Amino acid sequence: MGAMFWLFMGFWALGWVILAVILFKSKQKDAGTTK
Amino acid sequence: MSIIGWSWIYISIFMVILFYLAWKGMQKTKTATDFATASRSYGPLIIGLALMATTCSAAATMGNPGLVYAYGWPGLWYGMGGYMGVLVAWATSAIMLSRIGKNAGAKSMPDFMALRFNSPLLRVVTAVACISIIYYIAGQFAGLGWVFANALGFPYIVGVVVGGFVIAAYISFGGTHADILNCAIQAVLMMIVAVLVCVPIFIHIGGIGAIDKILTAKDSLMSSSVIFRGPLFGPFSGPAIFVSLGLFALTPQLSKLWLALDDERHVPKALLWAFLAIIFMTMIMWFGGLGGKILFPGIKPDTATVAILKAYWPPYISAFGMVGILAAVMSTSAGLFLVVAVALAVDIYQDTIVVYSKKRVPKEIMDKRVLLMQRILIPLVTVVGMLIAMDPPKFLTQLMWTGIGVFVGGVIPVMIVGCLWKKTTKAAAEIASITGFVIYLIMIFGLGQGMGIGFFKVPWSCCGVSAIVVFVLVIGLSFVTKPMDEEYVDALFVKS
Q1: Which partner for B3 in B85, B109, B288, B315 could form a disulfide, CB atoms 3.0-4.6 Å apart?
Q2: How many separate domains does chain B show?
C-alpha cells in the first residue's frame, strides 16, 4: 500500500488516541469531583 | 415491485416519522430561543448523532465519494479532514463553546460572537456570514434533486422543489427541537446506507488492497502512492481542505448543537458518538468512491454511490438506501435553514435594527414576532436556495464550499482563538473577521470565478489563505490593541 493509505490510517489512529485521552481525563475529573 | 414503488413506501413512512417529530418539536417550542437553539435539552447520544447527521450531508453520501471517484486517493484529504480535522476542532473548542455560550446566554452564533467580544459589530458580521450559507443550502437542494430523480423517477427540478418545501415545512413547525430529533434518526439511516454501499464492494472487488491493485493497474494516478493531485487536492489545496474541515466543524449549524447539550461534562461522550458515526461516512467515501470507479467507470462522479445501491441490492433494499441518502440531505439542510432564519430574525432584526431604532416593544410581543418571522423566513430561504440550485452543479461539494467559506475563512478562526485565549481583544477580533470576510470574497469571486485563476477557483484554497491571515491578525493585533475588561471576560470563562 502507498503513502496515502498510511497517512489515512495514521490520522485515524491518532483520532482514537485523542478520544481516549479526552475520555480518560474526563473520567479522572469526575472521580475527583465525587471525592 | 420496482425500486420506485419501494421508494414511495419508504419515503412515505419516513415523512410520517419526520412530521411526527416536527409535531413533538413544536410542542417543546415555547419561545424564539427554543426555536433557535433548544438550549441544554439533549444528552450526549442524541447530540453526537445530530452532530454527525448535520456534518455529513449530500456531500458525504454523494459529493465526497464523487471526488474520490474523480481524483483517486488524494480525494481522501477530504475524508481525513472529515474525521480528524473535525474531531480536533470539537475536542479543543466544544467545552469552551458550551461553557461560554451558557455563561453568556447566547441565542445563536452571531450572538455568541457579540457577547464574547462585547461587540455589536461582530454580531452583524457573523449574521451576514450566516446568510451566505444559502449557497450551502443550494448544494443540498442539488442533492435532493438527484435523489428524487433516481429514487422516485421525478425530474431533477421537481425533486428540488418538493424536497425543499418538505424540509421547510417541518423546520418551520418544529424549529431546532425538530431538527435535532430528526437528525438523530437520520444519522442511523445514514450509517445503514454506509454499510449498504461498502458491502457490495467487499463482495465484488475485495478489501482495500485489491481495490488499490486494480486501480493502479488501470491508471497510475489512481494509486495509493499518489498523495496530491491538483487542482482540488494539490500540495496546498489538499492540506487546506483538511484544516478547513476542522474550521467547518465550528460553523453555526454545528456549533449551536453544543449549546443544546444538557451538561458540559457530557462533551467527551458526545464526541465519542459523533466520531463513531462519522467513521461510517468516511467508509462510504473510501470504498464507495474507489470501488465505484472500478465497478462503474465513466458515470457522473457524484452518482457513484447511487449506482452501487441500485446495481447490487434488490429493489426493496436499494430503495431503503435512497431514503438514507435523502435523510443525509435533509438533516443538514434543516440545520442550515435555521441558521439563516435565526441570523435574519434574531440577530439582524431583533438585536440590531430594533435596538438601534430604540423602539420599545414589550418583550412578549417581540418574542412572538421574532418566532413568527423565523417561521416565515424559512420558506423564503428555500426559494432563494432553489433558484441557485436550478442548474445542477458539476461538483456538489464545490458549490457548498462557496457558501461555507465566508464563515470558515472569516469568523471561525476568531471564534477558536476567542474560546481558547482570554486575552483576545475586541478590536483584534473585529479587524481580523472583517479582513478575512473581504479577502475570501475577493479571492473566490474576483480572482477565481472572475479572473479564472486556477488556485482561487478552489473554495477551500481560498478558505485556507484567509484563515491563515485571520489567525495571524487576531493573535498579533491582540498584543497591540486595548485589552477587554478582565471582569467581563472572567465571568464568561468561569466554570459553573
Answers
A1: B315
A2: 1
Q: Measured between CA atoms, how close is B212 to chain A, in angstroms?
A: 8
pTM of the model: 0.86
C-alpha cell at position B280: 461510517
pLDDT band at A34 (very low <50, low <70, confident <90, very high): low
Q: Nearest-CA residue of chain B relative to A24? A: B268
Interface contact flag, B84 A14, Cβ < 8 Å: yes
B59-76 tens-digit pLDDT: 788 888 999 999 999 999
Report how far apart, in Å, the C-alpha atoms of B396 and of each of B137, B334, B390, B473 are.
Answer: 11, 18, 13, 32
Residue B172 pLDDT: 87
Contact B225 A11 (CB under 8 A): no
What DSSP string runs through A1-35? --HHHHHHHHHHHHHHHHHHHHHHHHHHHHHHHH-
Interface size between A and B, measured as CB pairs under 8 A: 62
Count of CA atoms in the C-beta half-sphere (13 A) of B205: 25
| Residue B442 covered by a domain | no
- Residue owning grid cell 474526563: A26
- The C-alpha cell 415491485 sits at B1
Has residue B429 been placed in a domain? no
User: Is residue B473 in some structural domain?
Assistant: no
B308 belongs to a structural domain: yes
Average pLDDT of chain B, as a whole number:
88
Optimal mutation site among A11, A16, A17, interface B, most CBs of chain B within 10 A? A11
The whole-angstrom separation of Cα B356 and Cα B343 is: 17
pLDDT tens track for B212-245: 999 999 889 999 999 999 888 999 899 988 888 8
The CATH number of whichever domain residue B288 belongs to comes to 1.20.1730.10
Spatial separation of the C-alpha atoms in residues B176 and B250, rounded to whole Å: 17
B176-181 mean pLDDT: 90
Nearest CA in chain B to A9: B80
- The Cα of B54 is separated from the nearest Cα of chain A by a number of Å equal to 20
Q: pLDDT per residue over B356-368, tens digit each?
A: 887 778 888 888 8
Domain that includes residue B280, residue range: 3-404
Output the pLDDT for position B395. 61
CB contact under 8 A, A4 and B73: yes
Q: Going by C-beta distance under 8 Å and a sequence separation of 6 or more, which residues neighbour residue B101?
A: B112, B258, B259
**Average pLDDT over every residue of B321-332:** 81
* pLDDT at position B455: 87
Among B486, B482, B184, which Cα is nearest to B334's?
A: B184
Query: Which residue among B226, B271, B286 places its CB closest to the CB of A22?
Result: B271
Q: How far is A14 from chain B (nearest CA, A)?
A: 8
pLDDT at residue B232, as a whole number:
87
Task: Decide: helix, strand or coil at residue B42.
Answer: strand
Residues of chain B with Cβ-Cβ distance to A1 below 8 Å are 208-209, 212, 224
Please give the pLDDT value at position B158.
Answer: 86
* B275 interaction partners in chain A (CB closer than 8 Å): 15, 19
Tell which wins on pLDDT, B224 or B92.
Answer: B224
